[in-house]
Write a structure and sequence with these properties.
single chain; 362 residues; alpha+beta; Creatine Amidinohydrolase, Chain A, domain 1; 6-stranded mixed β-sheet; 3-stranded antiparallel β-sheet; 34% helix
């Protein structure tokens, strides 16, 4: 419940009477309930916490909620139920907030319910989104452990799946094998849609797996992650079958060097834009910088993309407790792409790479 205390303290600091949290990742953060869907968290400055949940989720959510959280079911249609049931959700929320002069809402995750509620309020509304995202960016020991477990699952799954790598395997088949191992190793879910992109498809940073065979002498970008107890991992490796052409091998060397240099540069309170600059400087040495078309990394936690952004022009700084990715890549249109990605914990004295799996697997 330490995160709930952070939320109550935030209300006090901002002089708010109540907060209404609509973002499901935020609700997971404050309650520990994973696979959150349709829940609404109401936190009062006196410490009372109420969680409104769809009736179909009521028993599951009630059974896993912290004891300090009062769980109340709601339904959008009339039905008989053996517990008190909210049938007019908007009316219930209006009633709860009727005496509040200052209300906080995480507008980053606004949905139609939140929009309707805000339109109907006479209260001053404060956006809590950035405050909560800043909280989530600094991980405690348990969060770091859960993220590390998600990464261990991912790495072991790839270690197993790579044994099936051959030129006749399709991108879809390899993605399926990888995801099977992720599940069998104890993941709750996949952190995001698995990317397996070979040959010409690897030039698309967010390629979807296809029926294309992996082939010989082609790079194969594998970008994937596991979700473990609500926390994500994110890892990318570039594999290949057979011998690579010299230009592709040189590109892998450049991307690997850029990743090494960037990781070595990481220290607490360094601007994230400086890490991005290190990546681009190395790729520029190889004449490949113009093919690097995305940021150099991002925070990871409950969501696979969280603050901070490791990007040019960013004023964010790296702080102890942050877990970030560093993911240099190059994408040459109609030819090929290469990307390698590690996860890094920012410590009080420097940084610790969380990955144990070697980068070159083939």
């Amino acid at each position: 419940m330490s995160t709930i205390k952070k939320l109550i303290n935030l209300l006090e600091d901002l002089g708010l009477n109540v907060a209404v949290i609509f973002g499901q990742p935020n609700i997971t953060y404050f309650t520990g309930i994973s696979r959150s869907s349709g829940n609404i968290l109401i936190a009062y400055n006196d410490g009372y916490i109420e969680l409104l949940t769809p009736v179909v989720e009521y028993f599951r959510v009630r059974d896993v909620s912290p004891p300090e959280v009062s769980v109340v079911p709601y339904s959008r249609y009339r039905l008989e139920f053996n517990e008190p049931l909210i049938s007019d959700l908007l009316g219930y929320l209006r009633g709860k907030l009727s005496g509040a002069s200052r209300v906080g809402i995480d507008l980053e995750y606004i949905n139609y319910q939140a929009f309707q509620l805000i339109k109907s309020l006479n209260s001053n509304v404060t956006d809590l989104s950035r405050h909560i995202l800043d909280m989530r960016a600094i991980k405690d020991e348990l969060e770091i452990e859960l993220i590390s477990n998600a990464l261990r699952i991912s790495e072991e799954a790839l270690s197993k799946a790579v044994n099936e790598l051959n030129p006749k395997v399709t991108e879809l088949t390899f993605a399926g094998m990888l995801e099977m191992y992720i599940r069998s190793l104890g993941a709750d879910d996949f952190a995001f849609a698995t990317i397996v992109a070979s040959g010409i498809n690897s030039a698309y940073p967010h390629a979807a797996p296809t029926s294309k065979e992996l082939g010989v002498g082609e790079p194969v970008i594998i970008d994937f992650g596991a979700s473990y107890r609500g926390y994500s991992s994110d890892i990318t490796r570039t594999l290949y079958v057979g011998d690579l052409p010299q230009d592709i091998a040189r590109s892998i060397e450049a991307v690997n060097e850029a990743l090494n240099e960037a990781e070595d540069a990481i220290v607490p309170y360094l601007k994230t834009s400086e890490v991005d600059s290190v990546v681009r400087k190395v790729l520029s040495k190889y004449g490949l910088h113009k093919y690097f078309i995305h940021s150099s990394g991002h925070g990871v936690g409950i969501e696979v993309h969280e603050p901070p952004r490791i990007a040019l022009g960013s004023d964010e700084v790296l702080k102890p407790g942050m877990v970030v990715t560093v993911e240099p890549g190059i994408y040459i249109p109609h030819r090929y792409g290469v990307r390698i990605e590690d996860m890094v914990l920012i410590t009080n004295s420097g940084r610790r790479v969380l990955n144990r799996l070697r980068r070159m697997l083939t």
